[in-house]
């Protein structure tokens, strides 16, 4: 990518792992909370990386960034998570340049999601870019790329039906309750964790189960109170968690902790208890299933759920792919213009200099010389010449490098045009 004048890094990479080859436990090893993302971005900045985005969701952890070699990004990921390089090599993927660009389009539009048509991933990608921009590691290439993916996502949602039915883990959890719990409207439901997934789950619970006996608990109580206020729900202190678990029929865990927050010791139920763990890493210890009457469902199970609209959504894949291809081509076309932008800029400067020299000569030579008219005419001629060169360079991508070299040689452009 160095020829495109966009970064000090030689290539643009996507490195990461997802549900396709990494199970929930391994994904947990490489998950990044907000604090770790911040530290990773700061270290990247210190190491001279000028363009990088980090995403970490329940289904995947990925880094999009510029580097001389992908190991620079892999090293950053492993240093800020519990994962090792050896683990990464077994389950990970690395995409380079245009393949990395195509991958972001697939991910951002829900085509690579564990639940086809996932509409939550694009907002996570937006936030990741904003975070990088705040730290100072987001360049114009990344901004243009993310905006192009957002554009494709919107168009796919508006023009296809790929996002109908179950398209998120939060909705899948509610569908599981509706399909497997009798009289869900009458059950006591405890939601532990009111982050993004927790909030979405809460909205889906109210909308689809018509249950108003939902209690919220969050380590930071005021966050739970904000969600509860919107729906007129009950909020309890974090210290009340064991007591509230004893009262509940369904426990939904959506916390962002790096270690299990629900353990065997917290549960003393004398009735059946369904636990849905929507967290990565797992926030419910596996051994809770040893308790009588406890059923534990993790998000990997929920993500495999199908519904009656899935086959219809699969039929929409070619239409979504066509939209991606169209907008990705527009992005690549923009990228190609970056290749010759410094040359065009230097050429314009050279022509302006020639114009000024000629006007100065004619001003001295011609009596009553109309400088204003000459200035307008010469500027228009320069612009027409610039347009001719720009159109040539855009239309002949196979010969761009040769054309750039020729323009530099003919016009003696001695300014550096490539990084």
TrEMBL record:
Active site: 58
One of the GO biological process terms: protoporphyrinogen IX biosynthetic process from glutamate
Catalysed reactions listed for this entry: (S)-4-amino-5-oxopentanoate + tRNA(Glu) + NADP(+) = L-glutamyl-tRNA(Glu) + NADPH + H(+)
Top-level enzyme category: oxidoreductase
Domain Quinate/shikimate 5-dehydrogenase/glutamyl-tRNA reductase: residue ranges: 181-304
Domain Tetrapyrrole biosynthesis glutamyl-tRNA reductase dimerisation stretches: 320-413
Any one Gene Ontology molecular-function term assigned to this protein's record: NADP binding
UniProt keyword list: NADP, Oxidoreductase, Porphyrin biosynthesis
Site note Important for activity, residues: 103
Record's signal peptide: none
Residues given in the record as substrate binding sites: 57-60, 113, 118-120, 124
Pathway involvement of the protein, from the record: Porphyrin-containing compound metabolism; protoporphyrin-IX biosynthesis; 5-aminolevulinate from L-glutamyl-tRNA(Glu): step 1/2
InterPro entries: 4pyrrol_synth_GluRdtase (IPR000343), 4pyrrol_synth_GluRdtase_dimer (IPR015896), 4pyrrol_synth_GluRdtase_N (IPR015895), GluRdtase_CS (IPR018214), GluRdtase_dimer_dom_sf (IPR036453), GluRdtase_N_sf (IPR036343), NAD(P)-bd_dom_sf (IPR036291), Shikm_DH/Glu-tRNA_Rdtase (IPR006151)
Family in the record: Belongs to the glutamyl-tRNA reductase family.
Entry function: Catalyzes the NADPH-dependent reduction of glutamyl-tRNA(Glu) to glutamate 1-semialdehyde (GSA).
PANTHER family, per database record: GLUTAMYL-TRNA REDUCTASE
Misc. remarks from the entry: During catalysis, the active site Cys acts as a nucleophile attacking the alpha-carbonyl group of tRNA-bound glutamate with the formation of a thioester intermediate between enzyme and glutamate, and the concomitant release of tRNA(Glu). The thioester intermediate is finally reduced by direct hydride transfer from NADPH, to form the product GSA.
Subunit structure: Homodimer.
Record-given protein name: Glutamyl-tRNA reductase
Encoding gene (name): hemA
